[in-house]
Amino acid sequence: MYDMRQQISVLVADDHPVVLHGLADMLSGEPDIQVVSLCPNGVVAAQAVKAFRPNVAILDMVMPQLDAVGVLRTIGAETKTNFIVLTASASSDEMQIALDAGAAAILFKDTSADDLIACVRSVAAGERWKSTTSERETMPRSAETATEAVPPRPLSPREFQVAKLVSRGLSNKEVGRLLSLSEGTIKIHLHKIYGKIGVPNRTALAALASSRDAAS
Known about the structure:
By secondary structure, this protein is α/β, with parallel strands linked by helices.
């Protein structure tokens, strides 16, 4: 059972700076989580895990120089750090390889912020995280573009705010300034919004909002 009084040290590794800092901002907003290192690739992540010995390390599945599985195999049993692997898309075989290499959890990047934070707390307590989103197979590209086949899911209040501002033509930076959020956090919200309502990009989001306004 996780104790909220426990401070969790977290390392984050992702080769996309906007995503890297967005995740850090999201996690740092929790009183029991402290981000101790941000790593742009797997080599730096492996070194930082050994140096900082964080309770939890969040690794992007695919990174230059050394991927998440490479980091896990490099570290081996040298640390008590618990690992979460994030992926945009992965097959069941790829996810099983990561689990066999020592990952405590596999999460897709459209996982909600609440689920990611709950996962961090769970693996920090030494538990394996089971998520329905981590059981999905990689979708063919044609399926990803067939947005009409994706049933819409309700947006959170914050996601609705972001979607409304983006559909008006505001940039991520402008939206972030209005909502007091970083560009990275806005990008993460947008990734989740696209997945929930079944649109591929901000242009499609704006077109959808315009059509709904015209119909109302």
